[in-house]
Design brief:
Oligomer: single chain
Shape: globular
Structural class: alpha+beta
Order of helices and strands: EEHHHEEEHEHEE
CATH topology of one domain: Aminopeptidase
CATH class of one domain: Alpha Beta
Helix content: 25-40%
Number of helices: 5
Number of strands: 8
CATH architecture of one domain: 3-Layer(aba) Sandwich
Largest sheet: 5 strands, antiparallel
Distance between the termini: 29 Å
Strand content: 25-35%
Radius of gyration: 15 Å
């Protein structure tokens, strides 16, 4: 099965071709896509996304069941959980597990996230995972609304 990153409540595993349809369906859900600039993807587009060399795609699982997606990119992390999995501490657990893996196993000295300021639930979840606000920014080429730069402090 390859590498896995384990938290207390969740396990992360690399996304693969068997996850393409699931990821397409998850992104098609308005309760997911609204947090990702309303982006949706075709199967071919998702296959291309999973093949990107500069972004690692991970599936978040609880008790072996897929419940979310986390991506690791050069600047930090992005993540979502499917709606039924939110609010129980699973997101912070997965984020903390991956961040600790990046720092202690891969030698990263800094991990950041960039939630939209309006997404208070995500901001609170990142805080519970150990991230703190570093700065606030206006919309730019990568963000369609004001956003917060947060850095992991443990």
């Amino acid at each position: 099965m390859g590498i896995q990153v384990r938290g207390r409540l969740t396990t992360l595993r690399p996304a693969d071709a068997g996850d393409v349809e699931r990821l397409v369906a998850w992104h098609a859900d308005p309760e997911v896509s609204r947090y990702w600039d309303d982006e949706t993807f075709t199967i071919a587009e998702m296959e291309e996304r999973l093949a990107r060399g500069d972004v690692e795609a991970w599936i978040v699982e609880e008790h072996g069941e897929p419940i979310g997606y986390l991506q690791v990119h050069p600047d930090g992390l992005d993540m979502f959980l499917v709606p039924f999995a939110r609010g129980g501490g699973l997101g912070p657990d997965a984020a903390r597990a991956m961040t600790e893996h990046l720092i202690h196993e891969r030698g990263r000295d800094r991990v950041t996230v960039d939630p939209y300021a309006w997404n208070e639930g995500a901001v609170r979840a990142w805080e519970r995972a150990g991230f703190v606000e570093v700065s606030r920014h206006e919309a730019d080429a990568e963000h369609t609304a004001p956003w917060i730069l947060m850095e992991y402090r443990g």
